[in-house]
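Q&A log
Question type: sequence-to-structure
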Amino acid sequence: MKTEIKNVTPESLREAKNFINAGEVVAIPTETVYGLGGNAFNDEAVKKIFTVKGRPNDNPLIAHVHSGYDLSKIIDYDPPYAKKLRDAFLPGPLTLVYPSTGKVSPFVSCGLNTLAVRIPSHDGAQAFLRAVDIPIVAPSANLSKHVSPTSAEHVYEDFQGKIPLILDGGTCVGGIESTVCDVTGEIPVILRPGLITKEMIAEVVGACEEYTPDFQSGERVKSPGVLYKHYAPRCETALFAAGAWTDALEKAKAAAKEKRVAILCESELVGTFQVLGVTVLDLGRTATEMANRLYGALREAEGLCELLIAIEPKARGGVMTGVLNRLQKACISTDIPHGKR
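Response status: OK
Response body:
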């Protein structure tokens, strides 16, 4: 199969719609990361997403719709506080988990009676979703456990020859996946942190909790990004706490004698590590910068080093909760083959 990258135009949108109607999957831009999109009503298309990504079949998908879509077609109950959240944050990087009508493919939610729904703000995503006018399930357009893609080129690296079309909407501005919030209970519960924070949600609706998974209970999760290792570069990784940067420095000195080393750290530490003569990747100064740069830096590291040493930023709370969540999941020992692709 030939994989083409095309800018979002009326012609490429017609082509994308034809692929979707034929049960194919196409990559689409959003403001957070690129998604691998398929028809949420089509069992075979949904299963194809799991197959192409190598995604575990108990890891639910998110349905994406345009801003004018009638949610009553796919959700069974819409609590009043959910409408407040939509009015405040959507279109935008917030996914809401509702009781499902059961109209979409059962493979979308892995047999659960809930459905995660998102309304992306990216102009190209909205144009695509209006063109198809159906819910599109679209997990991040990367191979399972690999670093999420923030450009069309990242998608091509993972899916060349596996999907027919990548709609190029430029570099994603958000940089990490949407916040996922369960609205099936009396108050919203964050299942996956992101750019819309617990504090922002609580300010709108008065209260918000955070979900803590119990990995021993066998509980089935309602959101992607909870149970599995994610976002991992194809190189060895080592993660150090913010206060342990001197330990990271010693490890870098020792490792650099035998292998190519790169260091990922916040801006204020860049000068400290540059004296080693190893590659230093600047994560940024603010939480917004760090969210925007993280995945690009992890992908860049793959081509630069055999060992990536990452130091957690000092800041906590807000958007940093999402950044740290991704960084920690990315730097667990990986079963993805090491070295350059």
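Response note: The chain has two domains: 4-210, 236-330.
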